[in-house]
Design a protein that fits this description.
This protein is an alpha/beta fold and 359 residues long. The protein has a single domain, classed as 3-Layer(aba) Sandwich (Rossmann fold), CATH 3.40.50.150. The chain is built from 13 helices and seven strands. Helix 6 links the parallel strand 1 and strand 2. The longest helix has 23 residues.
């Protein structure tokens, strides 16, 4: 994937990009509905081919698509996500990382944070056979990023289709021997006490009320070793980057309402006082931070406060990126050069860390 305009000789232009141009030049898809079918008109997860193959797969697994319960809706969602990924990877001859680079990058940054918590940076980022679980892991792409760094990872999810997808992605990334998949309820997790060095989730807590969130966090804490960490990440409702993606999703839903799988709780999102929530389950609050990744939709200069414009201009390349890798490299440096308050302000996700008290 080549990014940015070039002149007729294949050399990047010398006129520096404006901030809006730099942000537009950084755009990377994060969700499957941002990737279009071969015609360029229909989101890949809404194409007849994906729906037909996913329905066949659901039927073979005995899943009744007419049921409206949450578990069935998740199964339909993940079946389409899996089939879309398989089709794009096969037809276009690309990797999953190339298919959804923004998604991969976000989970890579989260993995970096977990590595830092476990003090593994001195070992070239290797997690040295640490045990890590995700409660509500979905496709497991975050776990796969951790497995690639040496961790033994466990995906607990109620959706069989999500677990099948995580198996496919683990095989695709050649870490299938590092991933365990368990179908179950994260409010009643099938683990003993003190099993994992880190237990985390991303994109789960915001859909829960206070009582549910505390119950989930208690289960996560129980499964964590003394001195280990509980990490939760939620979308950043205040970030202009996230707001742009949400608007695009709503627009696509309006256009493809009959076939676009939009889960019933997508309009219900909550934020939390993480310090208070972690204190309620006897975790020691460690920190709150953000994951600063490229936008997947255009961001206007007016969406950035005046005092922050110079920071974006300082760290984002004034020249067009020549590849996705060069864009990610620039944004990784950007993410590491600003402070946590800036990342919480503009990051696509916010995450919080609690530590289980030593025995």
């Amino acid at each position: 994937m080549t990014m940015g305009p070039r002149n007729g000789n294949g050399v990047s232009r010398h006129t520096p990009l404006s901030l809006e141009e730099r942000l537009a030049n950084s755009i990377l898809p994060r969700k499957a509905f941002e990737v279009y079918g071969q015609t360029g008109e229909t989101p890949i997860t809404c194409t007849p081919e994906v729906i037909e193959v996913a329905d066949t797969y659901l039927d073979k697994n005995g899943i009744d698509k007419t049921k409206k319960d949450d578990k069935t809706q998740w199964d339909i969602f993940w079946a389409r996500e899996m089939i879309a990924a398989k089709i794009v990877i096969a037809d276009r001859g690309i990797t999953y990382r190339e298919y959804l680079p923004g998604r991969h990058f976000m989970y890579d940054l989260l993995a970096d944070s977990i590595i830092s918590l476990l003090n593994s940076n001195g070992n070239n980022g290797n997690l040295n056979d640490r045990r890590i679980a995700e409660f509500g892991g979905g496709s497991g792409i975050g776990l796969i990023s951790l497995a690639q760094r040496g961790a033994h990872v466990t995906n607990l999810d109620s959706s069989k289709m999500a677990l099948d997808f995580s198996k496919y992605l683990a095989e695709h990334h050649k870490v299938e021997n590092m991933l365990s998949r368990i179908e179950g309820n994260f409010y009643d997790a099938p683990f003993g006490k003190d099993e994992f060095d880190v237990v985390y989730n991303a994109g789960v807590l915001e859909h829960l009320d206070d009582t549910q969130a505390e119950k989930l966090l208690r289960e996560m804490t129980s499964a964590t070793k003394p001195g280990g960490y509980v990490v939760v990440a939620i979308p950043n409702e205040n970030s202009p980057f996230y707001k742009g993606l949400q608007k695009k999703e709503r627009d696509i839903y309006k256009q493809f309402r009959k076939i676009f799988v939009r889960l019933p709780w997508e309009e219900t999102r909550r934020t939390f006082d993480f310090r208070q929530l972690m204190g309620a389950v006897d975790l020691t609050f460690v920190k709150e931070d953000g994951l600063l990744i490229p936008p997947s939709e255009k961001v206007k200069t007016k969406d950035i406060t005046k005092e922050d414009i110079t920071i974006f201009e300082k760290y984002l390349s004034p020249d067009p990126y020549q590849s996705v890798d060069s864009a990610i490299s620039n944004w990784r440096g950007f993410h590491g050069s600003v402070d946590a308050s800036f990342r919480r302000k503009y990051g696509w996700s916010i995450y919080a860390v609690g530590q289980k008290k030593a025995a």
